[in-house]
Each structure stands twice: as structure tokens, then as C-alpha cells.
Amino acid sequence: MKLDHRAAATSRLFTAAIIFICGGVLFVVPPALPRADTKQAPSSAPSKTLTVSKITGSEIPMPFRTGEILNYRVEWAIFPNAASLQMDVVERRNLLGWQTWHFRAAAHSEVPARTFFEVDDQFDSYTDATTLESHQYEMYLNEMGSKENAVLHLVPIGQSSRGNVAPVIVPPGTRDPLGAFYALRAVDWQQTPEFQVPVYDGSGLYDVRARQEAASEQVTVDAGNFQATKISLRLFEHGKEVPRTGFLVWFAHNAARTPVLLLAEMPLGNVRVELVRALR
What we know:
By secondary structure, the protein is mainly beta. Helix content is 8%, strand content 49%.
């Protein structure tokens, strides 16, 4: 299944503004060919890149928990309050026989920027509680008076679809944009300086490569002052890096590894997303 031009552009707009959650002013490209060569590096070798594939075994502890709500302010171009973003860990639930985390992100443009682009979008991710693979990704787009919904079932190569929706065949370990953001929080950045994962955004398949840039930095945002780990992210498609696009994100040194700040460099301008409030 492939989303149309407008939906694909919106998906990327959502992805770039908050790392895989609000972005995509990149450009629309055809989906990449799925690859099935991902492997997981041993967690005991922190000097190596961690490439995610299917993770076997029991559920692993997560820094986030059900009921967590994170609120962000999005700054773009001349607009210091271009949009608001809320991210929720909605629930733990059974989805077609899988135990999953249900994540949700909602983005709304704010006045005066809303005069130019009226956006009220919601994205839902159902991520496997054990493997952290994405099983279902939902997009509810409401932009400039036009509405469009999409429900995507992500099925790894070699596995059978469990739903009645046409599946999207992806490499093992693939995340959707929202699930990928939470997967970054699950990484122990003190032991794993690099992390690599395939991400399907509703139109294209990307390799996302994250790297620790600083173990500890002081960060000041609306929510307060934090000591945080600085992580850079790069996007690759067909083996080539997506040009003029880069991300920096800071994860707080707390038990939740709260993402407190994101900076995105994109062709249509830089975006700053900072934490306003966190409820746990």
C-alpha cells in the first residue's frame, strides 16, 4: 500500500519536525525496495553500531510507561509558536494476538501560523512490546479543510498478515516514524553509541542512523533545565544520505529518558521542538 502525494508529503512533514513524528518537508519520493539484511549487534559490544532486527526473548524494560503525556512547542521560521505537539503512551493492548504499546501523537498549528496552514493531525502506532517492531501505523490527517485517513499493517518479510487490511511488506525490525521515536528512548546510550533502524513512513523506507554526539550537556527549554545526552540522526535512502536534512535530539538524564529538545535542519527551514510539560 502506498499513500498518495499529499498524504506522503504530510507524513514527512510530521517526521521532520520532531524526528520521525512531525516532519517531511523533504520531498516526495517512491518507496525504497525492502531489504532483509538487518542484524542485531551484541549489546555487550558498545563500540559497535546496534542494528535492530527481530529481538527474541521476554519483554525488555522501557523508560516510558502507560499514561505518560509529553507536550511540546514547535518553532519554525518567523513563528516562535508555529504548532503544538502532544505525545501519549495511551495503553498496552493486544492487537491481533500481539502484545503492543499504543503510542499517539497529535499536532495542531497555532495562530498566527494557523492562518497560513491549518493542520490538525493525529498519528497512532502499535509497537510490539517485545521486539519493538511496528505492527500497525495509523494516520488521521485534517489539513486546510481536507481530511484523509490511512491504516497501515506492517508485515516483515516471510511472515503472514493477521489483519484484513492489505499489508505493507517490510524488513524485519522496521518501525513506523512514531514507534521509531520511542525506540530511540529505549536505547541505553551509555552502552550503545550508535543505533541503526529501518523506518517506513507511509510512502518510503529509510535507514535511520543515530549517534551519540555528547554524553552530557546542559539544555534549557520551556519545561526547565536538564542534563541530557545529545544524539544526531541521519536519514538514508537507497544507501544515499537524504541531502540537507539532519536532526539533533537531547534525551534527559532521568529514568524516562525524556526527549526535551529537538532541532531539525530541512530544506524549507529549521525547526525547534522543545518540551513544555511532562506528565507521568
